[in-house]
Amino acid sequence: MALKPEKPATGILIKNTWGDAKRYQVVCDCGQGDHDHDVWVEANECDVGVEIYVTAKSNFWSRTRWHHVWQLLTQGYVRCETVVSMNRQQAVNYATILKQAVEDVEKFRKAR
Ligand SMILES: [Zn+2]
After folding, report:
1. pLDDT tens per residue across span 51-104
2. Do 108 and 43 touch, CB atoms closer than 8 A?
3. Is 91 helix (H, G, I), strand (E, B) or coil?
4. CB neighbourhood size of 101 (10 A)
């Protein structure tokens, strides 16, 4: 059974809208706030850009902190990762809102 996008959409919160830019919070299905992603859809002079901001964490659970300090000292970086988990409905909402947001900011830019 195909899922229809919801309005309001589960898991995708609009945070701000400025006509030529929109900002959304994509929440993680697990409920942990620091897994959430911030998604910006913005029209510039010649195109529309989408930027996703995340808070990445080192995989501190798999090694000791000294391992990470050592890796930073010897290699100049620490591996980090992040995840946002979505159920089917949220994924459909996300895809639909992203497509709509790109169209909206583009329409706003062209109208100027
Ligand atoms: Zn999560």
Report:
1. 999 999 887 777 788 888 898 999 999 888 899 999 999 999 999 999 999 999
2. yes
3. helix
4. 24
β-strand pairing of 57-58 with 21-26? unpaired
Strands 37-43 and 80-81: unpaired
- Ligand 1 centroid to Cα of residue 67, in Å, is 25
Tell me, in angstroms, the distance from the centre of ligand 1 to residue 89's CA. 16
What tokens appear for 5 in the block? 């996008």
Q: Give the three-state DSSP class for 44.
A: coil
User: For residue 57, how far is its CA from the centre of ligand 1 (angstroms)?
Assistant: 12
Q: Which residues surround ligand 1, an ion (CB under 5 A)?
A: 28, 30, 32, 35
pTM: 0.85
The pair of structure tokens assigned to 56 is 């990445």
DSSP state string for 31-43: --GGG-EEEEEEE
CA of 29 to the centre of ligand 1 (A): 6
Runs of H (alpha helix) within the chain: 65-75, 88-111
